[in-house]
Structure prediction request, 255 residues.
Amino acid sequence: MKTRIALLLTALLCQAIPASAADESGFVSIFDGKTLKGWHVSAKSGHSRTSKNTSGGKWEVVDGAITGSQDVPGNGGLILTDELYSEFEVIVEMKNEFGPDSGLFLRSTEDGKCYQGLIDFHKDGSLMGLYGEGLGGKPHFRFFNFGATDSEIILTPDRTPPGADGKPQVVDMTPEKWKTFWKSGEWNEFKMRITGGDKPTITTWINGLKIMEWTETEARLPAKGSIALQVHGGGDWTKSFVRYRNIKVKDLSKK
Prediction:
């Protein structure tokens, strides 16, 4: 009898804990791994011009990951959270094909104005730099550029935002170390933090290594918006895919 009561109590407790409950570090999952519940597609950005802004690319859940591609050649778009966020940290795992251009958008509007964490996973592209999407290209920072493959990088310290001493920030990374640090062909983790009002401070990480930190100098964007993922317009990327899973957010606005 005691065993049955214990099992019943355990079952009731499990039912009482919401699926979106924060883990010990304060992060809450915003993607259930099965559906796009809590997310919606926008065709309002410039990446959807090919369809005359009638469709926003192709987005679906495949093997537990949000998977995106162009729906017709040249036509991309955005998938955004229904919920709006102001100060937060967001973690995503990425396993994109090398070729399509993507991005992780912070405080995004429906037409894609945002602070973009670069996920330009292609030749001459970069990861976890910063770009002012729809904000006149300000800021635009990148710690490195890819070579012909994702195992080859070229450091670009002149494109890295200055630190408190006014000098470019230095990351403990070399092209040789990158080949052991970056898990080519596997899932890799990106993290971004944004704090402050309309002149926020933004920090980025790849697989736990801090890449850069930058503080805005002008009010370019509202202090609250969606988290979004992008499939870039242009070219033909209907048969290449971007993939994201284990998407989690920690709300830093509630102190």
